[in-house]
Amino acid sequence: MIETTTEEVLRKAGFRLNIFAIQNVRFLASFITEAGILLKRSKGCDASVLLDDTPNFSGEKTAGPNLNSLRGFEVIDNIKADLEYACPQTVSCADILSIAARDSVVLSGGLGWQVQMGRKDSLTASKTAANNNIPGPNSNIATLVTNFQNLGLSLQDMVTLSGAHTIGKARCATFSSRLNNNNAGVSNSEMNLDFLQSLQQLCSANNNTTLANLDDMTPSTFDNHYYVNLLSGKGLLVSDQVLATGDDDNTREIVQNYVDDPSVFLEDFKNSMLKMGSLPPPTGTNGEIRVNCRVIN
């Protein structure tokens, strides 16, 4: 019933959750575990990101990496409302996020996996942790690897989970350094010229909230075109492009493998999500099952 309800609400929402759950894999990792944010200290895996600000604390929705980026919260609200009507205080918001992230992948063309459920919802949130612990869009390979390894995830997992950027969008502000040749580890000489010019035109109005597709080939389909883009110099974020043209041959080899065989990427992504799902949540058994995902009981 949980899975049926989640899928039905997602379909009615027109998959708006794709922007919310999969636009940033480091966020996706924080509610599965992360969905990244990939760092347990950010508490994303226990639905802390869903909490609205209160007089006692500033929630994570207004943290730098999340502000004007994460969306689709009303979709989670609708799923929760339906489940509360059927089974009051039985399904946590953290589990709803995990299932919705999985279903967003499936409904967009990817493989599914068995979500490990039973998480509790946090009793607070930390804007400071979200600001400090989420890898930025200009991160280099070393930073990305460190952030993933802090959770026991490998370089392979990092490259694989970055493939969630095959759907979703990013604001001009997150890739402005790509337009100004002010990149750490990535030169504009490695960027597709036509792609660069199209982005410069898109962002020319100095409106940092303008959105660009993370995958300009198949932006609504969960496939391997994200990696195809990287080999063509069309990675939107610095943290994307360094996987193919950075200083680590191992990441480029994985990218090439996913370009050569799309089925390998889909299977590896499923396995990496299962691996993240097995990580213990920071809340442990000390949380609760919220009635409203936006506020503690």
UniProtKB/TrEMBL annotation:
Positions that bind Ca(2+) 2: 166, 215, 218, 223
Entry's localization field: Secreted
Residues covered by the Plant heme peroxidase family profile domain: 43-297
Highest rank taxon of the organism: Eukaryota
Listed EC numbers: 1.11.1.7
UniProt xrefs under CDD domains: secretory_peroxidase
Protein name: Peroxidase
Organism of origin: Solanum tuberosum (Potato)
Lineage, opening ranks: Eukaryota, Viridiplantae, Streptophyta, Embryophyta, Tracheophyta
Gene: LOC102582765
